[in-house]
Amino acid sequence: MPVSSRPDHPFFRPLDLVVYALVAAVAAAAFLLCGGRGGSPSRLLIHDGNGERSVSLAEDTLLELEGALGPVTVRIEAGRARIESSPCPGQQCVRRGWLERAGGSSACLPSGVWIEVEPAPGETAPDAVTR
Length: 131
What we know:
By secondary structure, the chain is α+β, with helices and mostly antiparallel strands. It has 2 domains: about 10-40; about 45-120, mini-chromosome maintenance (MCM) complex, domain 2, CATH 2.60.320. The protein has 2 helices and 7 strands; from the N terminus they run H-E-E-E-E-E-H-E-E. A 4-stranded antiparallel β-sheet has the order 2-1-7-6. It has a 3-stranded antiparallel β-sheet with strand order 3-4-5. The protein is elongated. The termini are far apart. The relative contact order is 0.16.
């Protein structure tokens, strides 16, 4: 039996390329419509010396929270939040950076302040996060 240099089933056929292009277009459209993050969170849950409350992430604002060691500053900007300054010695809460996804949290344990991004309606937060 002679060996042919041309396979009976080529890897790409013209119609295959059309199908691949359509699949790529649908995936790109889904990514753009979801913003690449699965939707945008709408609320920030705050635990501090004054109890628990929820604030909107829709408006840019600067919050002064009452902590056990002194004021803790939380910045809300562009639908995300972060602890901007804290009187605690380690500053891990400040280095945590921006919280953008549902379930993201930051805590200043010495001051007793904790913030968490709540999921948008119809969205669920992850059960666990690893790095």
